[in-house]
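Support case: iron/sulfur cluster complex. Customer-provided input:
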Amino acid sequence: MLKDSQLDLCGRVDFARTTPLLARDEAFSFACAGCGGCCRGREDIVLSGFDLWRIAGRLRLPPQTVARAFCRASIGQVSHLPVLRLAPVREERNNCPFLTENHCAIHDAEPLVCALYPLAQEISREGEVSYFLQPTGCGGRVIEAKVEDYLARYDVPAREKTDVRWAQTCMDLEDVVEPLDAALEPPLRRRMQAKLWQALYFKFDYEKEFLPQLEENLVWLGAELQKLTDYQQRRNTYRKK
Ligand code: SF4
Ligand code: SF4
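Agent response - structure generated as follows:
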């Protein structure tokens, strides 16, 4: 089980990948007994803004309502950015909140992490998308597949453009937010975090396309962060007088 401190935005973890990247036409295999354990006790199902928007559309609820009802929110210790993950339901054997009688209630809007399992995605700064096999440690029926066929099961290639934009956005924001985090006083830091949540997760209408809304939000966020920076600088100057 991963510790909170090991989890960060985009499902990124702060330890090195231990298995090689796979080519799209490469075959891989894993063993699975079909126990449903992948949907229980998981603290590591991190949602991107796109994942949340898809679930919001499936449930026809605003993204913030979905997040409040089914997720746990924190700030990444490495990225300093919002981290949203599904919150297991303690009273129900730590099941994922969307697990109903061994079925996923949001099957057609499954988060990327679930759709890929046991594969995982890696995106470079240049936007290259790769996949690798996570060690499951499970026994049971051996399943063999080609990477491209496995990805096609959930139409993963169709969302890659959005996943790349999301990953690059997060990488760019990390560079901006880390120094701001250090420079801002606590109340301003909290305001910055609230604006990051809005821009990356909540300021979305599930009936409109995701990417144009993200682009619009990023322009808004840039202006808001600039206002906070200016305000902090004015305060620093005033104090020195
Ligand atoms: S991969 Fe493992 S935990 Fe998941 S359903 Fe298969 S046997 Fe169960
Ligand atoms: S979202 Fe669906 S597939 Fe993913 S852990 Fe929950 S029940 Fe399982």
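The CA atoms of residues 62 and 205 lie 7 Å apart.

Case will auto-close in a few days if no follow-up is received.
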